[in-house]
Structure to design on (262 residues):
């Protein structure tokens, strides 16, 4: 760790932090595969949005190669569905059903590896980190892009995407973790075409990702190893049909970055 004494006693020796990024978050599976092959073992995992979805499966000790096989075109078509509501345009009921079928336990505290999911509490205006309770409720709350998805309700509080306030939640474990590897899947140029933003939807997408970029600057500096996936610029937030390609890019980019850091 760069700025705390080596003599400090840490609750966790090595942590993995996964950013949000919609379909680009599938690259975290490729990253995990490359890290495991390099001998990395984690005793805490923290994630936001799609990073939380991937993170809970890794904390359940599931193999990245087995997880990616579940991201079939058929499953992805039901992952996100239209919703007729004044609170959101889409619903993640399909994602909820898929997670229920995959996970081997219901509660966060029963996962094989300690896990935390970051979500934004709309009432308090602060990020919250779920460390216990129902896994699926927590990660669905963490992944709810505002306006696109209806807010999740937990204990009478409304939650939306954790990326609004903390897309790379390193700060939650920094003081309690000796070494942290962070994986970030949102390139700086997202939403641009030849340096320009074209169309209303692209303006909204670009603005949201600029917000995300801003709140990750402090956290990325806290990482002992920061993995920036700059090769995902052409992958849209909802390009889940490209799951195999995204997985491959995450794996190959992580292998390259690890070699460069030796």
């Amino acid at each position: 760790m760069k700025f705390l004494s080596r003599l400090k006693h840490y609750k966790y020796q090595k942590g993995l932090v996964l950013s949000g990024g919609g379909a680009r978050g599938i690259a975290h599976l490729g990253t995990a595969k490359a890290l495991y092959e390099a001998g990395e073992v984690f005793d805490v995992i923290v994630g936001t949005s799609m990073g939380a979805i991937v993170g809970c499966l890794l904390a359940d000790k599931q193999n990245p190669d087995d997880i990616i096989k579940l991201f079939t075109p058929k499953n992805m078509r039901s992952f996100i569905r239209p919703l007729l509501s004044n609170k959101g345009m889409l619903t993640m009921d399909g994602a909820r059903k898929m997670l229920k079928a995959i996970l081997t336990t219901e509660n966060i505290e029963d996962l094989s590896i300690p896990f935390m999911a970051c979500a934004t509490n709309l009432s308090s205006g602060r990020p919250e980190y779920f460390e216990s309770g129902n896994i699926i409720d927590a990660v669905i709350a963490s992944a709810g892009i505002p306006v696109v998805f209806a807010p999740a309700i937990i204990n009478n509080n409304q939650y939306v995407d954790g990326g609004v306030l903390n897309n790379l939640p390193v700060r939650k474990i920094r003081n309690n973790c000796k070494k942290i590897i962070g994986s970030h899947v949102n390139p700086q140029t997202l939403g641009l075409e030849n340096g320009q933003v074209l169309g209303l939807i692209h303006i909204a997408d670009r603005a949201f990702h600029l917000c995300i970029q801003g709140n990750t600057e402090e956290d990325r500096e806290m990482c002992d190893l920061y993995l920036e996936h700059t090769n995902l610029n052409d992958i849209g937030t909802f390009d889940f049909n490209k799951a195999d390609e995204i997985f491959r890019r995450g794996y190959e980019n992580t292998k390259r970055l690890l070699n460069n850091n030796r």
The first helix runs from residue 27 to 37. DSSP finds eight helices and ten strands in the chain.
